[in-house]
Amino acid sequence: MIDPRLTDIPVILLAAGQSRRMRGADKLLEPVEGAPLLRRQADSARAATDGPVIVALPPPPHPRYAVLTGLDVTPLAVPDAAEGMNASLRTAFAALPTGAPAAMLLLADLPDLLPAHLARVLEAVDLDSDTLIWRGATEDGAPGHPIVFAKSMFAEFANLSGDGGGREVVALAKGRVKLVSLPGQAARRDLDTPEDWADWRAERRER
């Protein structure tokens, strides 16, 4: 059961990367079950909360904005997105509502991550414990996404730089992190190259 204080938890969806390894294509616009991956992931985030869904995006104009049309999400341009993921984290955490007791962070390029997985991580969150971070993990225990950060961690994102993806903030929690096992490799499997996408689609056809 999800803590009532978390029913309107803000969700940050990181979608400002440059998709460099796709050799001209955009991985977040690849179709998955009839919709661009980014729209599908935004739908999943929207299903996880009654609160705001903040989608960090490259500066406009950019095709990713169009695929979010009609969704109840907040596009957030990251002016310095080319710097790396930490620029998106700085910008998105600065945009969170002041009263939020926690926030969920989600990567947009994890196509096996489903709304039920987000709910499972939220169900594990205990705001009255000394845990500061709750995060999805693979079935063999490798940490991944989504990640829920307690409010006391928000300020740590303000001075991040580079492309560390928030690892510095996780390190500051000094072990006060709870891993939540999710099926298979859903918490970590991203598709960064055309070959990754081809392999993933082939696996789905074989099921």
Automatic annotation (TrEMBL):
Keywords: Magnesium, Transferase
MF (Gene Ontology): nucleotidyltransferase activity
Keyword Magnesium: yes
Residues annotated as domain MobA-like NTP transferase: 11-171
UniProt key word Cell membrane: no
InterPro entries, per database record: MobA-like_NTP_Trfase, Nucleotide-diphossugar_trans
Domain of life: Bacteria
One Pfam family named in its UniProt record: NTP_transf_3
Name the record gives this protein: Nucleotidyltransferase family protein
Species the sequence originates in: Sulfitobacter sabulilitoris
